[in-house]
């Protein structure tokens, strides 16, 4: 009897040791908790010599917070800070806020002692802009790194919370001023135009642009929607699921009076209702690593359909995307209508030049690309869990459970 009790005691002791070991591994693997992030937005950008631009210092709380502070250093040979203003982060609470704009020292390339706090016992748990910084680019080319220092974020009881600091940068390049329109961010085209972004000239022929509409939202992981309201813009929204916290991201829609410059002036088969460029974020943002399930909503007037003898529009209206030197049809469906227009949605795996096309019986059939390649209607962003690292975490948990089982079996065999 005593021997059996001793064996059970040893078993329990070893089980507790293994359990504590598993908990320790989970903690060090970062599966149990996350951090509040403070980041520069956009994380990368391109500006021209002498251009005025802004960056945001953003916070995405993992737990409710009530105060924050930071310093910022930069290369004063490449940029000069004009001003720093409070963002909307702590104003979300509807409580009194004290904000200190800090000390700007361009001679040292530093902004010091920027802080803000709620003056009562409230707190906020939603992402927002902590501060907005206005800067001027110099006439020198180069990459200016913005480095956040002395960052502290605290809760309503004045205890510091764990943080993750994400720095940013700006690329300063010389551009032909004849290609610039409003002094905002300037970007050139890149072959098919994938991923071009910014709030200024995208590289499109300015004489081709009928209307340009810009929409900017703060992007956190999850559903993102960019609304559009210009009467000459057939798009009503661009939606996607964001896989990363990206801060302020701008989407530009350019409605054109002819085929985009990036398509080498080619057009898809059928009757073109509108040629459109859609640019989401800066170069390199609109990728499968950052988004999935992108949907474009657009309108087509009944009068245009009638004048082009396009019947059964739910079948014969399609959005095309220009990608890798060819027009590819997207999966398109009618989702609504009224007395004036029909409303459609198209799924797209990326952003570049697009065309809204209608076909009648005399037009060539829809194509899937050169040599019978797969149409983009069959291509989607890979389905990924919004919480990055979920697959890795599940794998780690499976491995730990397996190790635990092996250890228990070995312990049993030694008895």
Order of SSEs, N→C?
Answer: HEEEEEEEEEEEEEEEEEEHHEEEEEH
| General shape | elongated
> Tally the helices: what do you get?
4
How many strands, what sense, and barrel or not for the largest sheet?
A: 7 strands, mixed
> Low-confidence stretches at least 5 residues in length (pLDDT < 50)?
21-33, 176-199, 366-415
Radius of gyration: 27 Å
Counting structural domains, the number is 2
Question: What would you call the structural class?
Answer: mainly beta
- Which fold name fills CATH's third level, the topology of the largest domain? Chondroitinase Ac, Chain A, domain 3
CATH class descriptor of the largest domain? Mainly Beta
- What's the total number of strands? 23
Indicate the proportion of strand residues.
35-45%
Estimate the mean pLDDT confidence.
Answer: 78
Query: Approximately how much helix is present in the residues?
Result: 10-25%
By CATH, the architecture of the largest domain is named: Sandwich
Distance between the termini: 15 Å
Short synopsis of the structure:
This protein has helices spanning 2-28, 302-307, 313-316, 390-414; strands at 36-41, 46-48, 52-60, 67-73, 79-86, 97-100, 103-105, 110-118, 128-137, 142-154, 163-166, 168-173, 209-219, 222-227, 235-242, 247-256, 271-280, 291-301, 317-323, 326-329, 331-337, 341-348, 353-358. By secondary structure, the chain is mainly β.
Question: How is the secondary structure organized here?
Answer:
Layout: H1 2-28, E1 36-41, E2 46-48, E3 52-60, E4 67-73, E5 79-86, E6 97-100, E7 103-105, E8 110-118, E9 128-137, E10 142-154, E11 163-166, E12 168-173, E13 209-219, E14 222-227, E15 235-242, E16 247-256, E17 271-280, E18 291-301, H2 302-307, H3 313-316, E19 317-323, E20 326-329, E21 331-337, E22 341-348, E23 353-358, H4 390-414
Parallel strand pairs: 1-11, 2-12
Antiparallel strand pairs: 1-3, 3-9, 4-8, 4-10, 5-9, 6-8, 7-8, 10-12, 13-16, 14-15, 15-18, 16-17, 17-23, 18-22, 19-20, 19-23, 21-22
Helix pairs in contact: 1-4
